[in-house]
Amino acid sequence: MSKTFKETSKTGAVLWFFQRVTAVILFIILVYHFVYYHFISQGVYPWRTVVAKMQSPWFNLLQFTFLITALYHGLNGVWMVAEDYIHCKAWRLAFFSVILMVGAALLFVGTLTIIKISSLKI
Amino acid sequence: MAKVKLNVKVLRYNPDTDKKPYWKTYELETEDDVTILDVLNEIHWNIDGTLAYRRSCRSAICGSCAMKVNGRNVLACETGLHQFNSHKLKIEPLPGFKIIKDLVVDLDEFFAKLERILPYLILKKPTPDKEFLQSPQDFDKIQEAAMCILCGSCTSSCPSLWANEDYLGPAALLKAYRFIFDSRDDGTDERLDIINDRNGIWRCHTIFNCMEACPKDIKITEYLSRLKVKATENSI
């Protein structure tokens, strides 16, 4: 069967696919977060212990994955709602630009936070 | 069988004379085992002959009498009075469609969308001499979807369509599923091209209203989800 090339960004296939993928990743990360930090690691810990934990490469990777997937999932959700209600092309483009800017700003702030925690001297 | 007194509120609208739709209340006495269509017939034949509504087969096959009763899209001919636990009825035309008069809605756009997905078997291979055989397993994939009677209940109950009237809607997409997953059909690529659009399958947000509204209990949302997977496989 012949395959037809399509601009998937216009059709929504890619957005839909990655919305599902990020949902699964978010679910796994949140289950890990709740189980590890709320049930297994119970008790009072000194500040140094907590920061040391947060500086581990594994924690950083987890936080960065969480940041990327949560941003994609959340902002793509907002975009999908906007696609339902905004019918004018120019307004859609404007709204999409706002979403991109908000995403970029939150990504910057989130990444900066992870880097700052990692570079804290304990 | 017992007699019951009914209070029936019907949304009336005649675009030639009324500025906007209004509620008209009818009080009548009827048997308790009648259908909503019987109630409407009673009003039309004996109380108010100006009430307009569609009806035809009385067997839940033609889909003409789809309307909203007490907040639910139903077929008036198959819905009994006993299903409402109330002697108060609120009858409205199907939401999301333009009203022609009273309970009669304009389905032109609905059928135009159906036409867009090419709702017929497309054959590119040579046709067999006798009947076109299909295995029971292949038939199972489309059997339920093929039961759609095109009453419009699903499409009119879809919030995505209320927000975006260009959206194809569940009925047209279900018909697309019925042909795309038909082992005899060769028009998959053409149909996927049509539904793989920002006003096509991607406007379905799995709200499940269509499934709740379908008088034939077709699992529409499930089939549309399969269609999304198929469209994604074809695109990525």
Describe the fold and architecture.
The complex is a heterodimer of chains A (122) and B (236). Chain A is mostly helical and 122 residues long. Helix content of chain A is 81%, strand content 0%. Chain A has one domain (9-118): 3 helical TM bundles of succinate and fumarate reductases (Up-down Bundle). Chain A contains five helices and no strands. The longest helix of chain A is centred in the last third of the chain and has 30 residues, at 89-118. Chain A starts with 7 loop residues before the first helix and ends with a helix. Chain B has two domains: 3-105, Ubiquitin-like (UB roll) (Roll); 108-235, Alpha-helical ferredoxin (Fumarate Reductase Iron-sulfur Protein, Chain B, domain 2), CATH 1.10.1060.10. Helices cover 33% and strands 16% of the residues of chain B. Chain B is built from nine helices and seven strands, in the order ββαβββββαααααααα. Chain B starts with a strand and ends with a helix.
Key descriptive features of the protein:
heterodimer; A: 122 residues; 3 helical TM bundles of succinate and fumarate reductases; 5 helices; 81% helix; disordered N terminus; B: 236 residues; alpha+beta; Ubiquitin-like (UB roll); Fumarate Reductase Iron-sulfur Protein, Chain B, domain 2; 16% strand
Helix and strand layout, with pairings?
The complex is a heterodimer of chains A (122) and B (236).
Chain A: H1 8-11, H2 13-40, H3 47-54, H4 57-85, H5 89-118
Helix pairs in contact in A: 2-4, 4-5
Chain B: E1 3-12, E2 22-31, H1 36-47, E3 66-69, E4 72-75, E5 88-92, E6 99-101, E7 104-105, H2 108-116, H3 136-143, H4 153-156, H5 159-163, H6 170-180, H7 188-195, H8 209-213, H9 220-235
Parallel strand pairs in B: 1-5
Antiparallel strand pairs in B: 1-2, 3-4, 3-5, 6-7
Helix pairs in contact in B: 2-6, 6-7, 6-9
